Amino acid sequence: MPCVYAVLLCLHANVVAVGNYAIAIVGDKGAGKSTTTAAFAKHGYSILSDDVAVLKQKGDRFLVQPGYPRLRLWLPAIHALYGSEQYLERVFQPLEKRYVELTTENNASAWKFHSEPLPLAAIYILEPRQTELIAPKIEPISAITGLMTLMMHRSAKFLKLERDKQARELETLNCIADTIPIRRVYRADDLTKLAEVCQLILDDMQSLSQKSVVKC
Length: 216
Prior knowledge:
29% helix
């Protein structure tokens, strides 16, 4: 059932195109959102946005709007997934974080940008890395826990919104938590295991599709 008080909503999240749908990767600062997204990009999946996911309701779906065609990565992630940082622009001069440009060309190469909105199919919350964890795992969470988590990762949480706007934002977040599957992702502190994390997320998406939660 569509939300009554839907608004344009921004989450601190990266977004990857999987088939005709989008998945949002959410996490605290430094959790590895861009690094995980880059691992998807390396394997040919197109990227919709880095750091901010803009959601717009259309009927009973939430469409993720495309952002800028670039990723921001620290040097260890660049070396593990991309290659050399030699020709990559710095995000800020004092920092070693660099921009990796994404192409809009429709070809089979990696590092692609998806320039059209896609319906949000699932949200994956990156939990803190665990050095002792051997294999990554995914756990579903309840709608109420999902709502509380999304509230922590909304872009406007530091803004003093007017009361009616706060109410509409809360209603929209509640609708997302009620209708979009939200999962926690547990993984090791190991860049060489990123492919396993991506595959686990893709397998989970396939499982959702078979349950008719997501129709990929």
